[in-house]
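Can anyone check this?
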Amino acid sequence: MASELETKSEAEILEHFKAGAKRYHLGEMLLEPEIQKQGGDMVNAAIDAWDAKGPNGRETALTPMLDDPDLHFRVEAAAALIWVVPDRVIPILEDLYAHGPDEVSDAARVTLWVYRRDLQEEQKARERQGGGVEGPDAGEAGAGEMGA
């Protein structure tokens, strides 16, 4: 079943993503988990809408935001793309972790930590099964979403 957001234009979905990112970081700064959750839900809804539009929907929509002057948007775009284009976003996240304001640095740190933890867990699972050491499937449902 298609969500209402899936029927919106790319620009409308992007505005929804940005509003969610702002709300998420506002909730974090105010120590208001409900506001933070609402923002995260908005970001995830935008990601789901882009994913529903096709295999490159998320990447096409968010890649330009990796250079956005607003670091809050940049870190959320990078987090949403970490399983899609890790070679492109890991250096961005590392830079935001090292040089961004506290809330951006924290978001980058957590995203990198979760990504690396999941890679290690996937590698261990593959080794137990006698398989290779490749990373998780980039197409996993929910990969790169907030709260994942």
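Reply from J.R.: I decoded it. The chain has one domain: 8-128.
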